[in-house]
Write the structure tokens for this entry.
Amino acid sequence: MKTVKVKGKEGFVIGKIVCVGRNYAEHAKELGNELPDKPVVFLKPASAVIYSGDNIIYPPFSEDMHHEVELVLLIGEKIKNGDVAKSEKAIAGYGVGLDMTLRDVQHELKKKGHPWTIAKCFDTSAALSNFISAEDYKLTLDEEIVFAINGVVKQKERLNKMIFNHIQLVEYLSSLMSLEAGDLIFTGTPAGVGKVNKGDRLTAQITGVAKLECGVE
Ligand code: ZN
């Protein structure tokens, strides 16, 4: 059982993890993808979760694991077909996460038209910070999301560059499936994704919101 810690609140048991792809224009471009008119959606299992201080482990079936730093939303109550107000209210907290991705495996799967599961769901592929409560912190989208390898910045962007903002994502996703307390939403990564290597120190943060640090082995 994996949980999420929220400052000043009881922990949430993690349900499903819904991930959004291609939510920053520059990132879609760098991978040669067209801009979506609806968010691209996939899932990760809770078994993939690790926390700040843990190591990300290279699976034996990949030689090209990429970092994707993302704003992560914690859902605090059940929501289905939410409007804007309900969608905003359903968000219980904010954190920063790494959606680790096996780019070589994903490339092969894309070519065959297969689902991305093998490239996205391996153990340690969802690294999470602690979360800040949405009651204590109002997200302005002026916050900056930053990721570095061994102190060298690789990804840096303002959250207002998201094509679909956090509320629009909850609204859309809740029209596809019920979201429940403890579900997480990975909101997509900005440009600058690239390979991590064994021995790297990875740091991620959203200014004023959350911080995360992981090794790679
Ligand atoms: Zn991602």
User: Anything to note?
Assistant: Helices lie at 25-30, 84-90, 103-112, 117-120, 166-176. The two ends are 23 Å apart (CA to CA). The pocket of zinc ion is lined by residues 19, 21, 68, 70, 99, 186, 188-189 (CB under 6 Å). The first strand starts at residue 3 and ends at 4.
